[in-house]
Amino acid sequence: MNSYFLEADHFQICKNGYLSCGDTFYSIKNDNGIICVLADGLGSGIKASVLSTLTTTMAAGFMSSKVDIKRAAEIILETLPVCSYRQIGYSTFTIIEASNSGHIKVIEHDNPPYMLLRAGKSIPVEKQEIPIKTFRKSHLYYSELDLLPGDRVVYFSDGVSQSGMGLPHLPLGWLESGVEKYLEKLLIDSPAISASDISRRVAYKAREYDGNKAADDISCAALYLRNPRRTMLVTGPPYKKEHDSTLADMVSNFDGKKLVCGGTT
């Protein structure tokens, strides 16, 4: 089984006037891959931050303890408080369990749907709806798939998809369809763009639609499956002169980036 490199990153912008972001991103690596969680707490500021942090911590803890991703989501929903007026959970979330082979499991609760991008195009993903006993107005969506090298999974909070709402050309906001088109163009123009840059570009674009004053917490995260990039660091000559040719051969035959440093190198 091939082992690839999973590049995961995110970028966040606080709602204008707030110092604390109500969205929380958490990722943790394990022997097989990585677990990523993005949660959006209800409201803004400290209260939302506490709720989203609780959600991401619980999710990462369950997943690290080998709890099934579906069961982990159910436990979180059973544990989180419910808004008595709106009858919705105090936090939405997206949980991704990804292995180094490219196999991923994703479960979503009321966040905008994640996007799978392959060769510069958004690919539809088949999802299973899981009934929720706790919430009548909410849904859990589960999907499982195998990524190919070069694939990106991009997911974000509603501060992205709802940015620009009320503008003449965006009466309902940027929407998922607008984000999708932006990502497709971004990947066509920059096929090797990193997960960090994707997240940052999407977040900045969302803030731009809000007149550079974020109307809500803006968070975007990305997962990028790619081939590992190898690097060799040469810090000095061998202790014995007769080993110089061996080192020279190692450096010249190395397939990857080479860094040479040191006063005598």
List keywords for this structure.
alpha+beta, Phosphatase 2c, domain 1, six-stranded antiparallel β-sheet, five-stranded antiparallel β-sheet, 13 strands, about 30% strand
Explain what you see.
The chain is an alpha+beta fold. It folds into 2 domains: 5-226, PPM-type phosphatase domain (Phosphatase 2c, domain 1), CATH 3.60.40; 231-260, no CATH class. The protein has helices at 45-64, 69-79, 158-161, 175-189, 195-209, 244-253, and strands at residues 5-13, 23-29, 33-41, 91-99, 103-109, 115-118, 121-123, 128-130, 140-146, 152-156, 218-226, 231-234, 257-260. A hairpin with a 2-residue loop joins β6 and β7. α1 packs antiparallel against α2 (69-79). It is globular and about 80 Å long. 37% of the residues are buried.
What are the SSEs and their pairings?
Layout lengths: L4 E9 L9 E7 L3 E9 L3 H20 L4 H11 L11 E9 L3 E7 L5 E4 L2 E3 L4 E3 L9 E7 L5 E5 L1 H4 L13 H15 L5 H15 L8 E9 L4 E4 L9 H10 L3 E4 L5
Parallel strand pairs: 12-13
Antiparallel strand pairs: 1-11, 2-3, 3-4, 4-5, 5-9, 6-7, 6-10, 8-9, 10-11
Helix pairs in contact: 1-2
Write a compact overview of the structure shown.
This protein has 265 residues and is of the alpha+beta class.
Strand content: 25-35%
> Low-confidence runs (pLDDT<50, min 5 residues)?
none
Share of helical residues: 25-40%
Give the termini separation. 39 Å
Counting H and I runs of at least 4 residues, what is the number of helices?
6
* Order of neighbouring strands in the sheet with most strands: 2-3-4-5-9-8
